[in-house]
Structure formats: structure tokens, C-alpha cells
Amino acid sequence: MRAVSANLLALLFLCTCACVFYVWSRLESRLERYKRGLQLPRSFHVGPSPDISAKTFRALLAVPVAQRLHLGGRLDVRNVTGVRDQIGSLGSRDYHMNVDNKGSVQREVPAKFGSLVEGIFWSEWLEAQLPASFSEEHARAWRERARGHRIVRLEPGCGRISNQLATFSDGAKACVRYGINADQVQGETLTYYLANLLGITNLPPLILAQLNVDSEQWASVRRRIGGLQWSERAVVSLTEWVANLTGVVTPAPLRQESKGLRPLQGELGNKTTAELLELMQWTDLIILDYLSANFDRLVSNLFSLQWDSRVMERETNNLLRTPRGDLVFIDNEAGLVHGYRVLDMWEKYHSTVLGSVSVFRKRTAQRVIELHRRRDTRTRLLELYRDSEPLSPELGFLSYEHADVLQNRIDRLYKHILHCKEKYHQL
Ligand SMILES: Nc1ncnc2c1ncn2[C@@H]1O[C@H](COP(=O)(O)OP(=O)(O)OP(=O)(O)O)[C@@H](O)[C@H]1O
Ligand SMILES: *[C@@H]1O[C@H](CO)[C@@H](O)[C@H](O)[C@H]1NC(C)=O
Ligand SMILES: *[C@@H]1O[C@H](CO)[C@@H](O)[C@H](O)[C@H]1NC(C)=O
Ligand SMILES: *[C@@H]1O[C@H](CO)[C@@H](O)[C@H](O)[C@H]1NC(C)=O
Ligand SMILES: [Mg+2]
Questions:
Q1: Is the pTM here over 0.85, yes or no?
Q2: Which of 28, 225, 328, 382 has the fewest CB atoms in 10 Å of its CB?
């Protein structure tokens, strides 16, 4: 009997050793992968890669104690599948330490840095300052309204000639996008639903419509459609038109000369609430553009730096701002379909831009974690799209190949968040 127990103990000991070694080597290989993944050609040397080096990593760990206290934020990754996520459990110490502060966060004034970011997440206080840009209710109401009214006018006002400003019989307006090919309309539409899935509310509500000059919906603009040479039966997208939008210049922490957007006192503590709210929205933008491989905003600017050194000082493509300060992500037609086709060319820039962000919205990160763990991004996106858009069978959905690309990007984004967590949370 005793011999059996001794053998069992020995076995247990060996298993423990093996586990420790396994976890340790996984961590090492992850760090290694990050180093490799974020290496850039010299001419595009942007913020993130120096941070990845072991030297900087150690330097960060040497932050003075006073600053560490400010940085130790509460982490509240929602329990989505019944198992606490790795990201959540890593922060358990701080979680317990700060959990009592939850109710006492000051709602009006960001008294100190701790109330701006909590670990690697924008704080609840900051989140509370910015209601959804286009709420779910708003989007549902707009879509119903748009489907129920005739289009009485089509005119320029939404960019290039293939995009037209439409006026409905009730006076509401929309941008109609006629895709040169189906990829563009699919990209626009599926990116909108991907944003929905992630809880990102910066995209104007969207519906699809099928051109048919004999239908009531289009009859009033029959002649105009003829002039535009839009082909019958084409599926077009209509997005809510928003008044008084202005251009947006990329904020300093996201420019190539910066060290990136990091949850550090010295870098965020000095910003106004308006600046922080905008940065918070940019972090969602970067996540969405990374996942959808949309190069037609920040990434194309990075690319253009080769010959246009001042491109970052100009307004960012396909991004606008409301007078209230909400960012509006328009023109997502490069996302998911076209973006995936040309990934070879753009991937290094996508990785660079993602690598420059180490602060996230909690809700967005939670959804990413959930999609990573369940590995069901394709199903969830397809269901949402089918349930919300009657014309989805006409337009079609992502190929299996592209759905895999999307799931892989979710997984890589998850690892990036985990990496930031390891790097900054336990400071
Ligand atoms: N939903 C919207 N609400 C208000 N204005 C819009 C909207 N969508 C587009 N616009 C206007 O149309 C312009 C061009 O939009 P968009 O990027 O969608 O078209 P585009 O043909 O790609 O143009 P560009 O080549 O300039 O990017 C925007 O800068 C904005 O002024
Ligand atoms: C997570 O959720 C499951 C069921 O929803 C529950 O049984 C479990 O206790 C929860 N775990 C945590 C850590 O909250
Ligand atoms: C847009 O700006 C004009 C002029 O300043 C103003 O009259 C109008 O109310 C604004 N509309 C919205 C929706 O903000
Ligand atoms: C805040 O920024 C201003 C100018 O942008 C600078 O002069 C000041 O030193 C900064 N303060 C801190 C604490 O970084
Ligand atoms: Mg555009």
C-alpha cells in the first residue's frame, strides 16, 4: 500500500513539474512570437517594437512604487462562459484590492489617473462620459424608417459619383453606395454587423436595398438612376446621413513618432476629458480596422508616409466627428472582403497599428475574448446579419476561407490584449 502511495506521489510531483515547464515555455514562445510579429522594416519603424524588447520590458517593471499604485486598476472581465478567463485571473490581486472602490468612483471629475484607466482598460468613469454614438434603439428605428419610405431625391454629397445622397419622402437622408463589385457592398455591410457584434456603435445604421425602378421605393428617382448607369437588381447599401460632421486628425499617441497609446500616467494623465474620450473611440476604431483588415483609414496613412511625411497631419480618410465629439466611421467597404484579399500587402501595417495600442474598452475586449474562446465568430456574425437584414440572401456572406481569416484575427487580437495585460497590469 505504502509503495503505491509513494509511486502516486512521485507521479504527482512529475506532473506538476511538467505543467510548470509547459506554462513557462508557452509564455516564452508567446513573447518570442510577439517580438517576431511586430518587427518592422526600418523605414516604417513605428512605436510598438521598441517596447517589445526585453530591455524596455524590464525598465517598465522598474516603475516607482507611487506610480504603480495609480496603475493598479480593477479588472472586470465578465464571466461569459462560466470559466474565468486567463485575462481575468491574471489580475486577481488587483481585482480584490480595488473591488471596494467600485461604487465610490467619482462620476463628475476625473480626480486622479486611477479613474481614467483601470489596468489596460478605459475606466468606467470615462465610459460613462460617452453614451453610444448610434444606440441599438436608434439604429433599429432608423432602419425601419428607411425601409418604409420612398426615395424622392438622389444627388451628389456622399463622396465619389457612385455614392449618392438620398432623401426619403419623410425628409431623412442617407448615403447610397453603389458597389462597382459585390465585394464593396459586402465589406461595408458585414463590417457594420461585425461592429455590432463587438458593441462598437460608431457606424451609422445601415440597410440594404435592391435597385428596381418599378418598385415604389425607387420609382421617383427612376430617371436619375438611369443617368448614373446603376444596373437594375444591384444590391446597394444605405447608411444614415449625419449633419455637421467634420474631419479628424490622428491624435499624437497614435502617430508613428509616438511610443503608442499606453496606460501610463505620464502619457494620459495630462489629457483633457475630451481628448481621452476621443482616444477611447480610436481604440475601438483600431480594433475594428484590424479585425476587418480595413486599410482605408489609419493604415493607408502609415503606408503613405513613404512619400508624404506630413500625411499624419492631415485629416484621416473615412473618419468624421460630430459636434458632440462622437467619431463616425464611414466608408467601410474595404473591410473583410477586399481587405482580406490584399492582406499580403497590408498585414505588416495592420500589425504595427494594432501594436501601438495597449488600452482598450472593456466591453470590446470582453467581446473579443468571448469570440476567441467560443471560436464561433462566423456563426454569430452570420446569424446577426441574417436576422437583421432581409436582403442578406441576395448579397451573400463571407467565404469559409475569409471567415477563418476573421477568426484568426480575433485570436491574434486576443493574444495582443493578453500581452498588454501581462506588460502593464501588474506594474
Ligand atoms: N453618413 C454620412 N453622413 C454625412 N456625410 C457623409 C456620410 N457618408 C459620407 N459623407 C460625406 O461624404 C464624404 C465622402 O464619403 P465616403 O468616404 O463615404 O465616400 P468616398 O467616395 O470614399 O469619398 P473619398 O474618396 O473622399 O473617401 C465624407 O467626407 C462626408 O463628407
Ligand atoms: C461564472 O458563471 C457560472 C454560470 O453562469 C457560475 O456558476 C460561476 O460561479 C461564475 N464564475 C465566476 C468566477 O463568476
Ligand atoms: C448643424 O449646424 C447648424 C448650423 O450651425 C445648426 O443649425 C443645426 O441645428 C445643426 N444640426 C445638428 C443635427 O446638429
Ligand atoms: C502637460 O502638457 C503640457 C503641455 O502640453 C506640459 O507643459 C506639461 O508639462 C505637461 N504636464 C505633465 C504633468 O506632463
Ligand atoms: Mg471614402
A1: no
A2: 28
Atom of ligand 1 nearest to the CA of 163: 21
Q: Which residues of 336-362 are buried (b: 16+ CB within 10 A; e: fewer)?
A: bbbbbeeeeebebbbbbbbbbbbbbbb
Measured by CA distance, the residue closest to atom 10 of ligand 2 is: 82
**CA-nearest residue, atom 14 of ligand 2:** 79
Whether residue 388 is predicted with pLDDT greater than 50 in this model: the reply is yes
Ligand 1, residues at Cβ distance < 6 Å: 158-160, 163, 175, 204, 239-242, 245, 317-318, 330-331
pLDDT in tens, 161-186: 999 999 999 999 999 999 888 899 99
The string of pLDDT tens digits covering residues 330-355 is: 999 999 999 999 999 999 999 999 99
In the reported structure, the alpha carbon of residue 371 is separated from the centroid of ligand 2 by a whole-number distance in angstroms of 18
Return the amino acid letter for 128. A
Rounded average pLDDT over 44-69: 30
Can you read off the three cell numbers belonging to residue 164? 449618392
